[in-house]
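Give me the fold.
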Amino acid sequence: MLETLHKGSKAYYIDDQGRDHLIPIFSIGKHIAEERHVVKVEGLEDCFEDVAKKLGIKDNHSIHCYVSPPFGISFPEHSDPIDVFIYVMQGTKTMMVKEELFIIEEGHHIFIPAGTPHRATNVEPSIMLSIGIE
């Protein structure tokens, strides 16, 4: 997976206040191994096009990957101006969407319409894709 993540265009770690901080793309492995922060990698459309096709996505889209340690802090509740699919590659992702808890298992996904409040709660470790429809 690390080799694939190195193909991304930008990488960030998310601090304890839910703010993202730009990091060098080749330092991703170090940040993941520390298991202190969620790591976000952008620009992975070519690497995960098979997942977009599996979900029936034909429109222009962006693909970001989030690697979350157990109880990793993520963004506070927010809404996106575009529709988003959350697809779990590995582990289990827990998310609050409009005050409803979703537990998303490996190989499954949820759809979050534009403007819908949501946040990840990251109870267990996971690797997930956020696919935004542009």
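The first helix runs from residue 2 to 5.
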